[in-house]
Amino acid sequence: MGINGAALSPTMKRPIQESHSSAAASPRLSTPPPPGERLKVEPSHAGSSRNGRSSSRSTDIGLDAVDHALRREIGRQHRESTPGASPSRKRQRINGDRFIPTRSGQDLQASFSLLHEDGSPATPSRQKKRTPHGELHYQRTEEANRTFSRLLRTELFENSIPQVSPPSMSPEHNRLSHGHATRSHTPPNGPPPSSLPSNLTPSTPHKNLFSYMSPRHSIAGHPTPSRTPQSRHGPNLDTRSEVYSLSPVRYGSQQLLLSPRRQPRAVSKVPYKVLDAPELADDFYLNLVDWGNANVLGVGLGSSVYMWNAQTSRVNKLCTLEDDTVTSVSWIQKGTHIAIGTGKGLVQIWDAERQRRLRTMVGHTNRVGALAWNTHILTSGSRDRSIYHRDVRAPDPWMRKLVGHKQEVCGLKWNCEDGQLASGGNDNKLMVWDKLSDSPLWKFSDHTAAVKAIAWSPHQRGLLASGGGTADRRIIFHDTVRGTVVNEIDTGSQVCNLAWSKNSNEIVSTHGYSQNQIVVWKYPSMTQVASLTGHTYRVLYLAMSPDGRVVVTGAGDETLRFWNVFGKRGGRMGEDGEGGGGSIRLQEWGVIR
């Protein structure tokens, strides 16, 4: 080991410099003596012959002082290069041309069982930021990440690790939770249940997890014979065999990569039409917007009801109440009749085509905030906590009175196919009534705030969605056939309205505090297809066009916004108003107000 003179302490430099000045050539160091002796520096022969001095002359240097100086200098350089680092043990020398990591002692099967759906660790992380390229780019990136995660699982573990599948939300499955973490329970002291599948039980793998075998043996279950595999009918020439594959991945992974991908649907973030709606009430418990089957939108503004024709974009005033206010509007399923609920508890039936009132029905003692049609049966809910069934063909004002809610009834929806009525109230209760029964079939008390948003699924029998207010913020899915809760998801803000798509298995929700957004969800995965913003107040009103292509939203900012969220129309609407943008025979309408 060479000694650098510059690295020595100042007190030890002088003897070395004196020896250099007295000789033309550098002195050579003799073999280091044992510890405790003096270090002798012998000049070269050339130097001794030039100066005529004896070669026996030597310079004595204290070995202990040199060793002490070297240790101090090495320690100082180590502290400067790795400050605060603890001394590490000497790395063992590896004799070989490659490094194979050891995985002994790691339970990889248990580790993968603890991963989330997207393959990320269970450690909570910050919320992902959306890329600035828009919702479509974000959906494509998420799909690519999920595909890569599945491919990596397949390649590393094949069938030894259970594949993650998205949770199902059908009523046939048990209740799952999205958004709310289920509190774990302390396991019993007894032995674990034997019903747990063996592939989900964590087990410690043997040493040498990745072992190298002879070519005549099998690796990961795939034979690697030394000659062409033979069959009973001759050589095996199956091109899909792993023996002849030139791909770095297995055949199953190739099929996964080559399988067609469903392209994410692009939804416009900008409404294609905005209408001013002066005096549109900012009241959570009212229902002032409804889109009829004849493609006419009815809106209650103050004490008047206005109609907007989607075919001609004309506006006309239907009526103005005397000394009263409009609290709800609802179109009949087929026809031109519209029901109007008032602040004094009256229910009026109007013929929109002839613009005349047909009848006025009494019964409620307070405002009527919810209306729902089932062919010729009109159901009304009021602040007086009662629900009335009315047959519009009969002369009696009502035929059945339902008492079940303890506070105002703010949501009503009929399931016309099964004859079930869903009602939501300010008492945080959701009730399901069978046909015209006086007592509820089911009572759901899962919400912790007022239940106004109610929607029946047109794609699955007995599937009912409901949304809670500011203190709840959840969308809960119910199975009304069995009377159970299927699933729930926390939306993060007040749920004001819900509506199922008529053409796809998707659901739209409008929200209030604090984001005022419109969200399109994909069911049953409940992934967001789009999130639309634009309203500056709570989005309290929602209606869907007859063809299911467009939704209109209303808010306390006194605007109506039309969103094209479910793609293009399949065809033109006929005379009966089915399937597209038709219109009824109404006169030319002028500008609103």
UniProtKB/TrEMBL annotation:
First and last residues of every WD repeat: 319-360, 402-434, 532-565
Gene3D superfamilies membership: YVTN repeat-like/Quinoprotein amine dehydrogenase (2.130.10.10)
SUPFAM superfamilies: WD40 repeat-like
Region (Disordered): 1-61, 74-104, 116-144, 159-242
Keywords: Cell cycle, Repeat, WD repeat
Pfam short name (any one): WD40_CDC20-Fz
Biased segments, Basic and acidic residues type: 132-144
Biased composition annotated in UniProt, kind: Low complexity: 47-58, 196-206
Domain of life of the source: Eukaryota
Stretches assigned to the CDC20/Fizzy WD40 domain: 275-563
InterPro entries from the UniProt entry: Cdc20/Fizzy (IPR033010), WD40/YVTN_repeat-like_dom_sf (IPR015943), WD40_CDC20-Fz (IPR056150), WD40_repeat_CS (IPR019775), WD40_repeat_dom_sf (IPR036322), WD40_rpt (IPR001680)
Transmembrane regions: none
Family to which this protein belongs: Belongs to the WD repeat CDC20/Fizzy family.
Name of the featured protein: Fizzy-related protein
Organism: Podospora comata
